[in-house]
Amino acid sequence: MTPNAASSSGPSRRSFLTSTAVATAAVAVGTPLLAACGGGGQEGRKEGTTSGKEAAKILPAYVASSVVTPDIPAKNGSAAGFTRAIPTAELKTSVPKTLGSGGKLTVMSPFWGTPPKGDNPYYTAMNKAVGVDVTWQNQDGVTYDQKLGAVLASSEVPDVVVVPGWNLMGRIPSAINAKFADLGPYLSGDKVKDYPNLAAVPTEAWQRGIFGGQLRGIPMPAPYVTDIAPLYRKDLFAKKGYTVPGSPDEFLAWAKEATDAKSKLWACDDMKWTAFNIFGVLSGGDKALWWNLEGGKLVNRIETEQFLEALEWTRKLYAAGVVHPDAVQGKAGGDAGNRFTAGEVLVYNQNISDWWGKTAEQRTQNADFEMEAFDYFGPDGGDPTLWAVQPANIFTFVSKKASEQQIKDFLALCNFCAAPYGTKEFMLTAYGVEGTDYTFEKGLPVKTQQGVNEVNGAYDYTGNPAPYIAYPDLPEVTKGMVEWQQRMGAFTKKSSFFGLTVTEPARWSNLADDFEQLEDDVVRGRKKISDVQQAVSDWRSRGGDGLRDWYRKLLDDNGSAD
Questions:
Q1: What are the C-alpha distances in Å from 390 to residues 219, 284, 401?
Q2: Which of 491, 452, 484 is nearest to 469 (CA)?
Q3: For residue 398, which of 201, 219, 150, 183 has the smallest C-alpha distance?
Q4: What Pfam families does UniProt report for this protein, alphabetically (predicted)?
Q5: Of residues 423, 241, 268, the one with CA closest to residue 349
Q6: Which segments of 165-290 are extended strands (E)?
């Protein structure tokens, strides 16, 4: 990891840990509306999911990579950890020969910032190494949902298209089934061994790449441990003599003590995401994960007592005046991190990658700055019950119109980009050309300004290795993040639809869209818990019970993925 990589504003292979909530906050995506989808045959309209024996016929064989050994092995669903930079002379080779044919591919991908020119040294070097002439159609990440909907509704689809999981709404899943190729003939079973780096992608991530009954998507793997962490100012806790609270009641009592509004200091920012984990609410990132089979009945997260308890506890924080006033006004997301580094709040929740991002950002500004993530506790202060998030949430597809050679070139590109940390291929993909895009300073690879501008996005999405965390500039943060994931992973359960990509019937796909706003209104005191209960009753009558029956049949017919 390079300190200056913190300037990247969009998800990347090094900062993105597959959080729909974080992506929504950081990118401010809207709801994509796909007016029409060409090729609307039965395949394009396929609903449901594929698991069990049918999935086993489709999924690639798993062959763990042995090219590089991590400093901290993955455990309990965590990422693996690499704490040191690998000198150029020690880099391994994971792609011994060029697999691309020299053909051309056009790739449409989201990009945050100003896209680089197409003939830059980084793109040129990647094209040569992979053996594929890639032309990037980088689109504004903020409005990518709109562009994606328009492109998939047209007859002119690029050779390769990146689709973030948070854009899998409306008719886009059906368009994916209609417009993109089946990769099974090239990757299923032992066929994937022609692409060793792709063979090392965990099976649960590949399961997410099944759309419309076929293996269509190259997934970006991620840890399944919750990616939302309660982050706290360890330096300020030590200065004030605070210990980390160990229960919801302790947290509220501490928050009241720590808040000093006259000095512009508040205990916390909005803690709703943390509350959901403390009280054992089913994962909220993917609507399929909202459902779980409990006592023989399929239950949705919004129907549970845990959901109401989490909202009520968060409401108490707001009512006690311990939440920063900007959060009270609804100014959450990235601003929360700024309030945290400014010392205006002592605790906030965000994607765990912020642990490195904020530390790297502050290390040159505040030598005393120190932050960590505290462990989740349960409602009574005991062990928490946490729910797994999806093991992949960004996918890359190749067009049905692509030739066989183009598909093979696409897979050659993905295999190269999925090279593990510590390889020559990884360094080129992640850092660019040595001496141009980055140099070594005190043994660490540090991007030049050209590298910051050009090696950003794009190839992040066309293949990734098994989940890893590698911040050699801050090895203690790498260790802390991985060990936090391992500890939390020990309390993590997989719900009934974990690892499955489910296409809901269109008539029910927007049933729960208003609940997030309702949650925010309740915790801020604008609505009551009874309003949530009424909304749940309305949800059931408007189709929630029908959707439950549909999910139950899906589970009975296909089984779970785990």
A1: 11, 10, 30
A2: 484
A3: 183
A4: SBP_bac_8
A5: 268
A6: 210-211, 214-215, 218-221, 228-233, 266-268
Q: What is the DSSP letter of 559?
A: -
How far apart CA 152 and CA 371 sit, in angstroms, is 43
Enter the DSSP assignment of 399.
B
Distances 62 to 59, 190, 536, 538 between C-alpha atoms, Å = 9, 9, 42, 45
Type and span of the H or E element at 134: strand 133-140
Three-state DSSP string of 251-266: HHHHHHHHCEHHHCEE
Q: Mark the ranges of the chain whose per-residue pLDDT is less than 70.
A: 1-52, 331-334, 561-562
Residue whose C-alpha is closest to residue 150's, from 250, 57, 272, 33: 33
3-state helix, strand, coil in the chain (%, to 5): 40, 15, 40
464 and 527 in contact (C-beta within 8 Å)?
A: no
**Which residue, among 276, 264, 275, has the nearest Cα to 325 in the 3D structure?**
264
Distance, CA of 520 to CA of 206 (rounded, Å):
34
Specify the residue for token string 């159609």.
137
What does residue 532 show for φ and ψ, rounded to 5 degrees?
-65, -45
> Whose CA is closest to 356, among 465, 480, 239, 269?
480
Q: Which amino acid is at 471?
A: Y
Q: What per-residue confidence (pLDDT) applies to 455?
A: 94
Strand extents, DSSP E, 343-456:
345-351, 371-373, 386-387, 392-398, 438-441, 444-447
What's this model's pTM, rounded to 2 decimal places? 0.90
Which long-range CB contacts under 8 A does 552-560 form with residues at least 24 apart? 552/298, 554/48, 554/49, 554/502, 555/293, 555/298, 555/496, 555/497, 558/48, 558/49, 558/50, 558/51, 558/52, 558/54, 559/51, 559/52, 560/51, 560/494, 560/496, 560/497, 560/498, 560/499, 560/500
Rg, the chain, Cα only? 23
Using the structure block, give the residue that is written with the tokens 């050679």.
Answer: 405
Matching residue, tokens 């990509």: 501
Nearest to 157 by CA among 176, 143, 170: 176
Identify each DSSP E strand in 448-559 by its residue range: 468-470, 492-493
Looking at the DSSP bridge assignments, the partners of residue 387 are 493
The rounded distance, in Å, linking the Cα atoms of 426 and 459 is 11
- The per-residue pLDDT for 457 is 82
Q: Are 394 and 181 in contact (CB under 8 A)?
A: no
User: Which DSSP state fits 538?
Assistant: H
Closest CA to 353 of 225, 463, 458, 244: 225
By the 10 Å C-beta count (0-12 exposed, 13-18 middle, 19+ buried), 424 is classed as middle
Cα separation, 148 vs 167, in Å, equals 8
Position 212 scores a pLDDT of: 87
pLDDT at 332: 54
